Amino acid sequence: QVQLVESGGGLVQPGGSLRLSCATSRSIFSASVMGWYLQAPGKQRELVAAITTGGTTNYTDSVKGRFAISRDNATSTVYLQMSSLKPEDTAVYYCNARRSSFFVLLWNYWGQGTQVTVSS
């Protein structure tokens, strides 16, 4: 059974920073595009940032310049460094590992989610 174990959420004041971590098995990590998604109450889950096995990143517009995604191949961990946090960043954040080949989705795994609350 594939597990994605997340950590690092919590309560932070506006303008503050948090770092989320997500660890999984080496076999899954090394072959996956790793991503972070958020889901606010009553809304659909949406992509925040993703990083390919080669290190190419992409971000949703609302977090560009504030968030940074990175991956550590030695520890099979993906990180999301969040800075200049705003109340609208409040959501449950989910780690994702997926792999496609020739437009066929081979796997798509999710973490359990970690709550991020930005409030004074």
Task: Walk me through what this model shows.
The chain is mainly beta. 4% of the residues lie in helices and 52% in strands. It contains one helix and eleven strands, in the order βββαββββββββ. It has one helix spanning 26-30, and strands spanning 5-7, 10-12, 18-23, 33-39, 46-51, 57-59, 67-72, 77-82, 91-101, 104-110, 114-118. The model has no long low-confidence stretch (mean pLDDT 96).
Describe the protein's topology.
Layout: E1 5-7, E2 10-12, E3 18-23, H1 26-30, E4 33-39, E5 46-51, E6 57-59, E7 67-72, E8 77-82, E9 91-101, E10 104-110, E11 114-118
Parallel strand pairs: 2-11
Antiparallel strand pairs: 1-3, 3-8, 4-5, 4-9, 5-6, 7-8, 9-10, 9-11
How many helices does DSSP assign?
Answer: 1
What's the β-strand tally?
11
Low-confidence stretches: none
Largest sheet: 7 strands, mixed
Proportion of residues in helical segments: under 10%
Mean pLDDT: 96
Distance between the termini: 39 Å
How much of the sequence lies in strands comes to over 45%
